[in-house]
What does this fold into?
Amino acid sequence: MSYEERGAWIYLVATAGTYAAYVVVVLGRAAGGPLSAVPHVAPMLWAIGIGIALSIAGRIVVETVKPSESHKSDVRDREINRSAQHVGGLVLGVSMMVPLGLTMAEAAHFWIANAIYAGLVLSALVATPVRLVACRRGL
It folds into this structure.
């Protein structure tokens, strides 16, 4: 498995895991009450920060335990990343219509912030598998 592919797997797991943990924390804090009244800022910031830290630490641990043969990206890796970023950007652009609509409808900040976070996670959860498939099967 290449350096880029390992990094993509780590990023995918870290992103999905921290978002799932965030959702569990927020739903747990709701305790049957309205979700928009739940304090969500601190858990969201913690989830984003932990996701970033897990991605970095995971890559360091994996590369320490079983180093990749090369850390240099070639033309193929750059094309795969470009293609995956293109797909992720399209998903992100389309998903940002939801928070825009919520803002125009003057929805609670909770819903707007969570729509943005969900759009970012969705973008990562679509772009990363595109990258992984392209690494395995080619462009």
Residues 109-137 form the longest helix (29 residues). The mean pLDDT is 91.
